User: Fold this.
Amino acid sequence: MLSIFLLAIVFWITEAVPLTATAVLVILLEVLLVAQGALGNPTAADPALAEEALPASTYFAALANPVIILFLGGFMIADGAEKYGLDKNIAAVMLKPFSGSARSTVLGLMLITGILSAFMSNTATTATMFAVVIPILTSIKNAKARSGVALAIPLAANVGGIATPVGTPPNAIAVGALESNGIHVSFIDWMIMATPFAALILIASWLLLCTLFIPRSERIELTMDTNWNMSGKAKIFYAVAALTITLWMTEPLHGVSSNTVGFIPVAALLCLRVMDGSDIKKLDWPVLWLVSGGIALGTGIGATGLDAWLVGSIGWQALGAVGVTLVLCLVGLGFANVMSHSAASNLLVPVAISLAISLDGINTTTIAVVVAIACSLGMSLPISTPPNAIAYSTGTCTVKDMAILGIIVGIASTLLLALAMPPLWELMGLV
Assistant:
């Protein structure tokens, strides 16, 4: 299992093979090498180990983990929003009040991007917002202001994705890993913990952007029209999407798991022919398989005792609860700047949960959530995250500007996350 874990680290950092390929390779190697009936029978020397080994079906089940179903529902809603033009129309309606001052326009862009990315993929949200904003960018004469407007979108997409379990894969990885350890985090529980933090970082980032890039005198005049799709299928989609999001946010009232709710739009939209097989093909299946690989990796680490070995081989106790949390968050931030956010959380969340279980004074839910969020804060380079790559590809911002903004926001946010949020959540009775 240690060899599989190290191989995953090397492949996810170097991308020697595609990220998704590494995820499914992890599952295959676990089935072949550490599951019951594994090749070479590694437990032959100790019958007790053979009894503890998990069946192969447990590792394969990561591909249909309930969290995968939750994400699948989120993808269906995001894909439908694009198909029926809901995303662009919402953006156009919400941007209208922010016309005039460039600083207020940037605030509007960031709020809208953050809200959309909480329920849609960060990449899809960024692509949608740039489709709306490109005409605005061409009208801005000040190069520094143009760069600031362009950078506001990926920054808001990355931060906004923190707010819900379906906003970004690291969130789903944390929820799935906690579920595997018998800890259920509902949709609204996650939102209560993460949304205030995301909102605070969003506003602080806007102030930083204005200070660094947007002159007070710069103005942007918006002329945006809406074109609502009022066909029967579009109306059904609007209703199903609204129902799903409402059920997600009221889970404590009705008791239906958010994972189960996530399958409602999948079944309803297909049965009502609002979406079909061609839409299913467009879903971001590689991300779902990547999350599955992370869930399987965490399962294997726990089942083989690798977690206990990793904890015992390093003097974590000397760091204390705050030190462990801070170190893991900073490592997550560092990893996420040079590799996929999902891959970083796949590697670190299982280790974080194992540490919380083994050490005194560390809340398991808290450390899983903060490490997952820290892995979403790595955004200082074009390679750090797809939204950054999209922004850079427009030619309106430089790597230097992106790095300065990403490093400042990333480090400040991670320190706040690791040092201030855990005691606040404990004080509020959330963990």
Notes: The mean pLDDT is 86. The two ends are 31 Å apart (CA to CA). The chain has 23 helices and two strands.
